[in-house]
Amino acid sequence: MRRLFEQADAPVFLKVLTLTAALFMLLPLPFVQYIGEEGLMAIKSFEMFVRDDWLHPSIYGAVWPHSPLWHWPVMAISMLIGWEHVDLSIRMASVLSSWLAAGFVGWAASWLWPQQRNIGWLAALVYLSLGEVSFWYGWLGYVDAMFGSFILAAIVLLWRGIHDRRAAWFLASLLAISLAFLTKNITAYALYGLAGGVLVWRYRCWRMILRPSWLFPGLLALSVPMAWQVLVVPSGENTALTTFRDAMRNFAGFGLLDYLFHWVTYPLVFAFRAMPVSLFLLWLVWRRKWLPTWNAELVTLATVLLACFMPFWVSAGATPRYLVPLYGLAALLLARMLRQLSREHLKQGMMLIGLVLLLKIPYSLLALPYVKDWRPGHDQQAVAREIMALTKDAPLRTLNDVATGLAVIAYIDVWRPDRGYVRWFSPKRDKRVYVLTEREMPSLGRLVRSWTVRGDDMYLYAHEEGPAGRRR
Q1: What is the CB neighbour count within 10 angstroms for residue 91?
Q2: C-alpha distances in angstroms, 181 versus 187, 311, 413?
Q3: Which residues pair with 102 in a beta bridge?
């Protein structure tokens, strides 16, 4: 392997390794059943398709005031390959988003450091090999990869606009941040504003952003959430307030020790999940084999990264998932620092990247399926087939909204699309139906079967209450 990496910085080698990393993002897609919230995301996409409503996601028939953009590529891919493969579609949406983010990372590196040969390919490779991206959120069927890619694109385009003093790049960044909002929520504007504040301060361009060509489009972009709230969000719902309440939960109910633990460990978690390059560089610094050299671009990049990191760092309940939009900035920083290394250390860093890519194969084909699916009591698809066999042609309803219950229903929905989608049980409306619950509810009727799947209990009841309210 050492001989293979002798030309670690050669153009062909970098391009081949980067494209390999991109293709390896596809490895886990067909081999693992739904993980975590993936079942929920599949249900929302399928129900939007069945209802022919591309603006209002719904869960079990109830409209949910979430942004819809992430579901559009899922619906398009599912219509192309078949809804029975929606599990692949939701993950493909994330993989495509990761590829887009890698492209923006490479492009940003190329114009920030044009004197650095092949820095764009190196930066894209670093991004695609980051542990958080390669092994988890980069391919997992959540909104985070797309949300992060649009935020990254918006910050990079804004930086280019301020650097070149061209409003066209700024307009492109406003489009990207609007797409980020339509993907998830208004926290996109918070990160965009923090990054923008740092860039304006670093470039001393206060007067420029007050010009009509900058000010008016910026105000118009900021009005997008308000217009969306008024024109699209169902009456009585408020996405901004919901997001604000969720953010406040990260500060409430925690003691001093919780805050101290979070403040100490959160940066370490971020650095660990940006492995292998982050850990390799930290090891070199610790062993006093290398110290980074800071120029204007690196200082600006590090300051932007720190500013966007701070809101999650100061809270006590922020999870590593919130940091997904920041890994593109981290990849830029890490790639430029790799180029500061000696030839021998650069070769070692590239070998570590190659080793991580190799580990992706057994991880995707063996380790992850074993942990999630192959152990007894973990097969969600088997439970879905049993429920379909037990209920036959009878209507099926649910009172189960935990992850495993959502996954089972997601499979049932797309395996019998002619039946529509499974709805939430309503005692006033639903008679002679089967009901899937997450806990024992004898009042529903006869217990048909129960399961324990991935540690969660599920119960299937035959609800046979007649029109007069009597059980038959």
Answers
A1: 27
A2: 8, 18, 28
A3: none
